[in-house]
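Researcher: I'd like a structural prediction for the single chain below. Treat it as a standalone chain; there are no partners to consider.
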Amino acid sequence: MKWMLTVTLLVIVQGCASDPVPTTQVSEPSCVGSTMISADLRDKFELVQDPALLSQALGEALAGKLCQGAVYQSTQEVIIYRVWNSTNPQSQFGQWWSFNRPSGQVSAYRKDYEICYQWSPLDKLVECTLKPGTKVVVGNGQSAKCSEYLSYPVSEKQQVYITEASESAMNCQSYDGVISWQQAIEQ
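Model: Treating it as a single chain, here is the predicted structure.
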């Protein structure tokens, strides 16, 4: 019996070593974009070290969160935005924010920020001021698998991760999403 097992293992090892890599195998994509804050905001943040906070914001491939990031601490007030789920009022002050006010197609926003439809209908927007002294992680989105039919790749769009947004945000204003239709541009 031992001899049979050894032969079988040799065949498996030989088979693996000589077989080409299937073309359908997807290699894990590299992170894209930059963790450096844009020039118009650089004077409002300082780069700091907080490995634990950075670790909370980073995610595995196809699991969302950030692909790469850097920790900053705000030195001045900064406007931040979050699109959230009105059926879950507690999601208003969730962890994922942006320095840029959302605009354009919802489907493009979902792809840019890797937001699966199961996570949020994206029907509310909150605009707040980030308090000085708040630590955030700024980085680029990790890939996300929403279903067997829909996955989003890594993104160069910057996201802002805030652990205690309800305590770090002030002067918030909420906005409702409204249905607005534009003629589709065929691509």
